[in-house]
Amino acid sequence: MADETLQREALSSRGVLQGLAREPLVHFLVIGGLLLGGYALLGQDTAPDDSSTEIVLSVDDLAQLLMIFESKWRRQPTQDEFNLMVEDRIREDILYREALSLGLDKDDTIVRRRMAQKMQFLAEDVAAQQEPTTDQLRSWFAEHTDLFTVPQRISFRHLYFSPDSRGSSARDDSEMALAELEDAPLDTASAESLADPFMFQDYYGDRALQAIAGEFGPEFAQAVSRLEPGSWQGPVKSGFGWHLVYVDNVIAGRVPAFEEIEQEVKTAWLGIQKADAWREAYDDMRAKYTVLLPVPAEADTAAVPAESRPPEALAPDREAPL
User: For the segment 221-246, what is each residue's pLDDT rounded down to a tens digit?
Assistant: First the structure.
C-alpha cells in the first residue's frame, strides 16, 4: 500500500510539473533567471566609480539578446550560451568606445554614411508613428487616384515578317498575307504558315502596354492599343520587323474602389509622409550650416577650364559659401 501511495504521489507531482511547464508565467521566470544569472556571472557593477568606463546593460538589452538567439535557433539558450552572448555584446561596446577614443570614426566614409542613414531613419520614424484615419486616406486617395490606376491590358497573337529573311519585301509580304486572312476564320496553323518564326512568343495574354512596349517598342504598343479585337490587322512595325496582329481581348484601365486597395493606399500615404518628414527635417538641419568651398588662387585660374572656374564675384584665395 505504501508503494502504491508513493507512486500516486509521484504521478500527481509529475502532472503538476507538466502543467507548470506549459504556463507562460513559468517561462517568464525562467527567462528572468537566465538574465539574472548573466548579471551574476559577469559581475556587473551597478555603481562603478568611473563613469567613463561604465558599461550598463539594461534588462531590455539582455532580453533583446535572448530574442535574437530564439529567432535564429528556435529555442532558448543555455546559461553558457547566454553568457557568451552577453560577453560578445560587452566586447562590441568596449571596442566601439576604444575606436572612438582613437578617432577611428573620423573621416571614415562608411561610418559617416551609416550615421547619416540613421539620422534619416530617425526623421522618417516620426512620420511612421502617425496612424491615418480612414477619412484621411479616402481624401488623399481621391487626390492621387493616378497612383493606383490599373492600366489597360491586352491579349493578342501576332504573325512575324522578318526583314532579315525577306529584306525590303517584308512589309509587302505582310500586306499580302493580311489579304489572305481578311475573311478567313482564325486558324493559327494556316496563319503561321504565311509568316516567319519569331524568337519569343506568338501569343501574349493579359499584358499591360508597358510590358508590350518593353518587348516590342513603344510605337508597336501604342499601335496595338488602337486595334479593334476580333480580326487580323496591320501591318504593325516593331523593333524586330513587321507584324500582323489579332487582338483577342482588351481590358480597359480603371481606378479601383478605395475599399479594394485600402491597405495599398495606407502604405503609399505613409511613404509620402516619411519622405516629407525627412525633407523638412533636413531643410531645418541644412539651415544651421554654412558650407565653404575653396576658391583657386589667381595664379591657378588660368590652368582651370572656364566652365570649371568659380563665379567671378568670388574673390580668389578666399573660402566661398555654397
Answer: 999 999 999 889 999 999 999 999 99
Cα separation, 131 vs 135, in Å, equals 12
Residues 274-283: tens digit of each pLDDT: 888 888 888 8
Separation of alpha carbons 61 and 52, rounded Å: 20
Give all strands of the β-sheet with 232-237 in edge-to-edge order: 203-208, 153-161, 242-251, 232-237
Q: Which residues pair with 207 in a beta bridge?
A: 154
Residue 163 has pLDDT above 90, yes or no: yes
Question: What are the cell numbers at 109?
Answer: 566614409
Closest by CA to 156, choosing from 225, 252, 213, is: 225
CATH no. of 107-148+254-287: 1.10.4030.10
Q: What is the DSSP letter of 52?
A: G
Measured CA to CA, the distance from residue 255 to residue 150 in angstroms comes to 6
CB-based contacts of 87: which residues, under 8 Å, 6+ apart?
Answer: 42
Its pTM surpasses 0.70: no
CATH architecture of 151-251: Roll (3.10)
Domain boundaries, the chain: 15-101, 107-148+254-287, 151-251, 292-321
Name residue, grid cell 518628414. 277
Query: Does residue 235 contact residue 181 with C-beta atoms inside 8 Å?
Result: no
Rounded-to-integer distance, Cα 296 and Cα 301, Å: 6
C-alpha 107, offset from chain centre: 29
Q: Where are the alpha helices (DSSP H) in the chain?
A: 2-21, 24-42, 59-73, 79-101, 109-128, 134-143, 163-166, 170-181, 188-192, 209-216, 218-225, 262-286
